[in-house]
Amino acid sequence: MTQTALILVDMQNSFLHPDGENFYPAAPEVVAPCLELLEAAVASGAIIVHVCDRHREGFADFEQPRLPVHCVTGGFNAAFFEGFGPANRPNEIQITKRRYSAFFATDLALFLFEQGIERVVIGGVKTNVCVRATATDAFGNGFEVNVVREAVNSNRPHLSEASLEDVERYIGKVVDLDTAKGLLA
Question: Locate the Isochorismatase-like domain: which residues (predicted)?
Answer without folding.
Answer: 4-177
